[in-house]
From TrEMBL:
It comes from the Eukaryota. The chain crosses the membrane at residues 263-283. Keywords: Calcium, Glycoprotein, Membrane, Metal-binding, Transmembrane, Transmembrane helix. This is Arylsulfatase B-like. The lineage of its organism: Eukaryota, Metazoa, Ecdysozoa, Arthropoda, Hexapoda.
Length: 285
């Protein structure tokens, strides 16, 4: 996948999540349903026994049932971003994704292609993962929670490899052709691009001219969202916020308002660790 974190191409916005729970009725599978970060609040709220209606009008969609039972696709559209400063815009509708950039955006660099970059890192080693401390602990807990999920090593390895192969998208990507003219036309600038992220998850092929109806539909949605846009307000960079002044931690540095509670860097780090542990235990059990 192309691009980096914080960008509108899928290499910057597509994430990975793992759920491990005795409540899962369909286990050992990969869900390709569209899931936005705002969906976590209502989804986890429902999982904890809450009533979704109590949350009021929010952007997120409750996807707990689709994760645990039906696999039904609950979300069909997601606005990725509209950045009036950089000019980057993107929106997903079903399996269509529209992307727009400008010449000052870094996106033009990633949309250009001069050939493969070569091997990026070591091969995935299933033995090291399964025999790690985390792998060993999870295996033991699995057997305690459900005897049906307690598998021998070979079965576990086969299952892991199968699930990993389902989750990988490289094999689904079309062949990418190197651009013969690296200084030529900037793709997605002169006209927005349209990608079929189901058939082309790596966003290599702009098919806007071939699917004008889908293209116009996604553009119209972007126009509607722009009407609700609130302009960005970037505050000036304050050197006083440097973590070096707070024992290496990110902390509040402005003058505290009356009644506010201040925590030191050490306490903040403890809270972060606790939150990470809670998140880990919740999704990996």
């Amino acid at each position: 996948m192309v691009y980096e974190k914080g960008a509108v191409l899928d290499g910057g916005v597509r994430g990975v999540a793992a759920i491990w729970s005795p409540w899962l009725k369909k286990k050992h599978r990969v869900s390709e349903n569209l899931f936005h970060i705002t969906d976590w609040l209502p989804t986890l709220y429902t999982a904890a026994g809450g009533n979704f209606d109590d949350l009021g009008q929010i952007d997120g969609i409750d996807q707990w049932e689709s994760l645990t039972e039906t696999s039904k696709r609950m979300r069909t559209m997601a606005l990725i971003n509209i950045d009036e400063t950089s000019g980057e815009e993107a929106l997903i509708l079903n399996h269509w994704k529209v992307v727009k950039s400008n010449r000052t955006s870094d996106i033009v660099y990633y949309l250009k292609y001069s050939g493969e970059h070569g091997k990026m890192g070591p091969e995935y080693n299933m033995n090291d993962v399964a025999e790690s401390l985390a792998g060993s602990r999870l295996s033991k807990i699995n057997c305690l929670v459900s005897k049906a999920d307690c598998m021998d090593t070979l079965t576990t390895y086969d299952l892991f490899y199968n699930i990993r192969s389902q989750a990988k998208i490289d094999s689904k990507c079309i062949e990418r052709i190197a651009d013969p003219d690296p200084n030529g036309r900037y793709q997605c600038f002169d006209s927005p691009c349209l990608f079929d992220i189901q058939q082309d998850p790596c966003e290599y092929q702009n098919i806007a001219s071939r699917h004008p109806e889908a293209f116009n539909m996604t553009i119209d949605l972007l126009v509607q969202f722009k009407k609700e846009l609130t302009m960005q307000n970037y505050p000036a960079i304050d050197p006083a916020a440097d973590p070096r002044f707070f024992d290496g931690y990110w902390d509040t540095w402005m003058e505290k308002s009356v009644g506010s509670i201040s925590f030191g860097g050490q306490l903040n780090s403890c809270v972060i660790i606790i939150l990470i542990m809670c998140f880990y235990n919740y999704f990996i059990y």
